[in-house]
Amino acid sequence: xxxKPASSGARRWREALLGGETAPVPKVRAPTRRVYPRxxxxxxxxxxxxxxxxxxxxxxxxxxxxxxxxxxxxEAAVFAxxxxxxxxxxxxxxxYTTIVxxxxxxxxxxxxxxxxxxxxxxxxxxxxxxxHRLVLGLxxxxxxxxxxxxxxxxxxxLRRPFQKWMVVVASGVLSSAIAVKLGxxxxxxxxxFVTASIxxxxxxxxxxxxxxxxxxxxxxxxxxxxxAVGVSQTDWxxxxxxxxxxxxxxxxxxxxxxxxxxxAIGSFSVTAAARMVELFVATIGIVVGVLLGLQLADRLDxxxxxxxxxxxxxxxxxxxxxxxGVAALAAAVxxxxxxxxxxxxxxxxxxGVGLDEAxxxxxxxxxxxxxxxxxxxxxxxxxxxxRLYVPTILVTVPAIVPLLPGLAVYQGLLSLTQGEPLxxxxxxxxxxxxxxGLAGGVLLGQLIGxxxxxxxxxxxxxxxxx
Length: 466
What we know:
Strand order of the largest sheet: 1-2-3
Structural class: mainly alpha
Number of domains: 2
Low-confidence stretches: 1-10, 12-30, 462-466
Mean pLDDT: 81
Radius of gyration: 24 Å
Number of helices: 19
Distance between the termini: 39 Å
Largest sheet: 3 strands, antiparallel
Shape: elongated
C-alpha cells in the first residue's frame, strides 16, 4: 500500500518532464537544495486553513528575503513552512523583490495564489537567524503549528542588536583594522577610524532619506579620498593611501558578491542578474567617487603613492590576522548579526587571512591564491551555521570582508589617473579575479561542508526556536 503513492508520484514527474509541463511539485522535491529537513505534513482541506498556511509561509519568506537571505534559502523556507502547515501540492516563485505561492486546486478546495513584494531592504542578520531557527523548529516538531503566528510576530518585532552609534563605530573599526592589516601604523589607523566614522554617520543620514546607493557611495568614497589627499600634504606619519583602501573595503558590497554568485550557480538567473546589477552599480559609485578625488589631487599637483607593509615575518602575519579578525567582527556588527555570532565570525576572518598569506607564498596570482581561504571560510561557515542554527551567509559574508580587493581597486584607479592605463587595467582585472575567486571558493566550501553539516544537525541540542 505504501509503494503505490510513491510510484504514482514518480510517474507524475516523468510525465511532466517528458511533456514539458509544470506539474504541481511534491513538497519534498521542490527546493533546489535541501536546506531544511523534510517536513511530514498532513493534508488540510479547509480553504481558511490553506489561506492561513500560505500567508504564514509568505511572512517567513518576506522576513528572510528582506533581511538579506539568498533566494535559494528563502524558497526552501517557504516550502518547508507551507508543507509543515499542511499544504500538499503548491508552487513557490521567488525573485529579487517578490514571493509568490500558488496552491493547486483539488476536489476539496479551489486553487489559491498569494504574493508579497519587498520594496525596501535592510540588512538585519539577527532577524534572519531568528526566522531560520523558527523554520527549523517548525519542521522538526519543537514548534507546534498553532504557536507559529505568535512566534513569527515576535521575530517581526525583533529589534536590531546594535544601535546606530555602534554601527558607526564598527564602520570606523573596520576601516582602521584594514589599514593595520596592510601595514599602517597607529596614526594611520586613527585617521582611518575617524574618516570612516564620519562617512558612516553621513551614510546613515543618506540611507534614512532613501538616497540611491550609487550616489551615496560616490559621496562617501570622495570624502575618504579627499581626506587622504589633504593628509598627504602634511608632515603626519600617515600612509594616506590606506585610508582610502579602508574606506573602499567598508563600502564594497561583500554580501551582494557572495549571494549573487550563489544564486547564479543555483540557477536563480533572474535574481542573480538583479544582484549583479546592484553590485555593479554600487561598485561603480565607489569607483567614481575615488576617481573624482584623484582627479582633483592631480589638478592640485598632489602625487599620491600606495605604501603597504612589505615584511612577511611572523610578527607581521600575527598582526595582520588579528586585524583581519577585528575587521570581520566589525563587519558582523554593521550587518546586524546576532551578538553571539560576532566573535566566531572574527575567528573565521582571521583564519582566512592567515591562509591567504600562506597561499600567496606559493601562488603568484592573487585571484588563484584567494581560492584556498575562501573554500575554508565556506566550509567552516557551513559547519558553524549548522551547529548554531544560522544561515551560512551570516558567517561567510563578514568573514570575507578582510579579503575583499580594495587595495587592487585603489591601485588600478590611481594608475589610471597618473597616466598608466595598462598598469591600471591590470590591477582592476586582478581585483575582479580576486572577487570571482572569493565568491566561487566560498560556494565550493559550502558544497563540501554539506554532508558534515548534516551530521552535526543530528547531534543532540537544545530547542532551537526559543
